[in-house]
Write a structure and sequence with these properties.
Helix 10 packs across helix 15. A 5-stranded parallel beta sheet has the order 1-5-4-2-3. Strands 6-12-11-7-8 form a 5-stranded parallel beta sheet. Strands 13-17-16-14-15 form a 5-stranded parallel beta sheet. Strand 7, helix 8 and strand 8 form a beta-alpha-beta unit. The chain is built from 16 helices and 17 strands. Helices cover 28% and strands 13% of the residues. The protein is an alpha/beta fold and 471 residues long.
């Protein structure tokens, strides 16, 4: 090791030092390891996309993701909260690495101004680590389904980036009932996809197979089409009359899930959506772009019925708490019955025996699944969040929320990680609460899930109107 210095370093803290890849490898397997490893590269590189001239893709096992760009673009208080969540705390040794030494050094200087961290820098960055095939790397199993704005830009320019579609592809700007938003600005080449074409407003479940069989070919989508979806989140104020219209990435993952249900296997999400595309300086176009219809979808619908479950299947999961779990992707206020989360749903509470994991601040935000730049949170952090509540890949897992949007984003996060037995309870809280025969639980949840759905009578559930206020 050789010593280095960093701007803003406290006199009573050791100067940042360098460590080579071989020495770091030994320390990572040493008993009593206490160091935190931080990956400074873009989140796509961390997930598994090839980056720069690195020999292999992914990240050092156990590393946290903290793209160096955040250190310059986010406010100090938000950054400190993120650092703490990743284990980067005062007086704890933190090993950082970027693509190369310049990136690593710049991050060390920035971190010195944010706290009293004991910084160690990996010589040669991830490039040096990945050069030796004997050193382990990890990556998200289905990383190619979460694409970056750079990847999409290259594809639209006619290039063949990594994991490019083998055949025809389509790009969709997804929202709920918002053609004006699409006309105002969208990614060049995108067509508009209204979630109303995929969901039935009577209950906000996916539309019947016969209706999907008409809607998808009208959009030009076949079983073999690669579909790339994105949304716009830049206008998502809680005071809006219909804030769900601006929850673009939620709308996009909802569309993605229903497309997978129909049988489209290659559906991808633009990480960070329209907002990240614009902030990266890419062009937009305005006006209306009509899709080119095709004659037929090309296969029976649904092709993947297993990704959506009904109320009877949800009850079956609840009856098997050892091998299955019904996961509530709803706020604490919704879960305890303080609010239904929607203007259009009257009953408040939860499904007895479900398991709640943190998600976001309301029905149209998913802060626990997103990074500071609105990209998807690092997948090991999402998995750790679930594991605390006993949500693990060995179980049959179904996610639910109010009407399916937030549950769809959680489902997609599990799908990216390669989880096999996952689904969304499509009816969610809206369907469950409408049936007075279904029990509702409020208040603090019992320490152990119930094994029975027995409950007492309650007033009939109802919705106040049929207009959707939020996903």
């Amino acid at each position: 090791m050789t010593n280095g210095t960093a701007g803003g370093e406290s006199a009573d803290l050791p100067a940042p030092v360098w460590i080579d890849a071989g020495a770091l490898g030994l320390r990572l397997v040493a008993p009593g390891r206490r160091l935190v490893v931080v990956d400074l590269r873009p989140s796509g590189a961390y997930n598994g996309w090839r980056h720069a001239d690195e020999a292999r893709a992914g990240h050092i096992p156990g590393a946290a993701s903290l793209p160096v760009a955040w250190l310059a673009s986010a406010n100090t208080s938000a950054l400190r909260r993120v650092l703490t969540s990743k284990g980067v705390v005062a007086n704890r040794e933190v090993v950082i690495y970027g693509t190369d030494d310049g990136e690593t050094r710049a991050a060390s200087d920035a971190l010195a101004g944010l706290g009293r961290f004991r910084i160690t820098m990996l010589t040669g960055g991830f490039t040096a680590w990945a050069a030796d095939p004997a050193r382990p790397v990890e990556r998200m199993p289905r990383y190619e389904r979460l694409v970056s704005v750079g990847w999409l830009g290259a594809l639209l320019a006619g290039e063949r980036p990594e994991a490019a579609p083998d055949g025809r592809f389509l790009l969709f700007h997804v929202n709920f009932g918002g053609p004006a938003e699409f006309a105002e600005g969208h990614i060049p080449g995108a067509a508009h996809l209204d979630t109303l074409w995929l969901e039935d407003p009577a209950d906000w479940n996916r539309r019947p197979a016969v209706e999907l069989g008409g809607a998808l070919p009208a959009l030009g989508i076949t079983r073999d089409t690669t579909v790339i979806v994105y949304g716009r989140d830049s206008v998502g104020l809680r005071s809006e009359k219909r804030p769900g219209r601006r929850a673009g990435q939620l709308a996009a993952t909802r569309a993605l899930l229903i497309l997978r249900y129909a049988g489209v296997e290659d559906v991808r999400l633009l990480d960070g959506g329209f907002d990240r595309w614009v902030r990266a300086g890419h062009p937009i176009e305005t006006g209306v772009r009509e899709p080119t219809p095709v004659a037929t979808f090309g296969a029976p619908i649904p092709g993947r019925p297993d990704v959506l479950v009904g109320v009877d299947e949800a009850k079956g999961l609840l009856a098997d708490p050892e091998g299955s779990v019904l996961v509530s992707v709803r706020t604490a206020q919704e879960h305890t019955g303080r609010t239904s989360g929607y203007r259009t749903i009257v009953p408040a509470g939860r499904i007895p025996g479900d398991v709640r994991v943190a998600c976001g601040s309301d029905a149209h935000h998913m802060e626990h699944y997103r990074n500071l730049d609105n990209t998807m949170r690092a997948y090991p952090e999402i998995a750790a969040l679930w594991a605390k509540s006993g949500v693990t890949p060995d179980k049959r897992v179904a996610f639910y929320c109010g009407t399916g949007w937030r549950a769809s984003e959680a489902w997609f996060a599990a799908d990216l990680q390669g989880w096999q037995r996952i689904a969304v309870y499509d009816g969610g809280w809206l369907e469950w609460s409408r049936d007075p025969a279904n029990p509702i639980e409020i208040g603090a949840q019992p320490s152990r899930p119930r094994k029975s759905l027995a409950g007492t009578g309650r007033p009939a559930a109802a919705t106040t109107d049929s207009a959707r206020a939020a996903p």
